[in-house]
Specification:
With about 300 residues, the protein is α/β, with parallel strands linked by helices. It is built from 7 helices and 13 strands. The strands form 2 sheets. Strands 1, 2, 3, 4, 6, 7, 8, 9, 10, 11 and 12 form an 11-stranded mixed sheet that branches. The radius of gyration is 18 Å and the shape is globular. The two termini are about 25 Å apart.
Amino acid sequence: MKPTLLILAAGMGSRYGGIKQLDQFGPNGETIIDYSLYDAIRSGFGKVVFIVRQEIKDQAAELFASKLKGKIDFDFAIQGVQSYMPTELGKVERVKPWGTGHATLCAWEQTDTPFAVINADDFYGYDAFKTMAEFLSTDTNDKQHAMIGYELKRTLSENGTVSRGICVEREDQNLEVVTERTKIFPKDGKIYFEENEVLTELAPETPVSMNFWGFKPSMFPITEDLFKTYAKENMDSPKAEFYIPTVMTHMIQKGLGDCRVFRSTSDWFGVTYPEDKPKVQAALSALHADHKYPDNLWE
């Protein structure tokens, strides 16, 4: 069976100031998602699931449905604040989505094959999709998952701090631990993360997760159980987020799964701040000029 691609597109873009997952960046008005879809199709994925908030579902469907019809199966999953919440907690008062781990869980009903998870606003490159599609199509170990690791120095923004999953690998190329760091930035030729007002230096080649994961369906019930516990502990914290690295670290520590790290030396790019947009536009235009992508992706 061909793998499924889940696209995390429910974010609110608070730092960007708008719905960046639907914004136009390519020379013909393409979104970043357009490039991910194009690369996924030519890499061998068989289905796409857009994970969105209810209020942007119609807009996303209008933008992508006509492009994908006849090329790949597609569906939509809604990440709602109450989705998969323990019923005994009642209605939770929050606006911000519960995070990437919860978003993935919200696509359970639409996903019955091995699957990849990506951010809607990150450009990963064809090689990453090809590597992950091959892994998901050939690896039959239900407990073996994977991720694409990028070098930290290739994933920074010139316009502010970024959040990254900092990875430590074992000798067998499996992940030992991934830790979400939410304030990473360059300073004086070095890279740091800040936590509790303390700066810690990070090596430029440190592998980081850019939320390009590959999972077997066995992760869904594990994620559900873990989220229920997390929700109970954080229901009064309106900014608390349940991240995919939380799920992966839990599986590794409990012996429930392993995660192969596929290293990439490609330049990742994406948008966190409005000031990032011109750089992304220039990078995409250069890829078209270099014939890495056709003039029109969907003709």
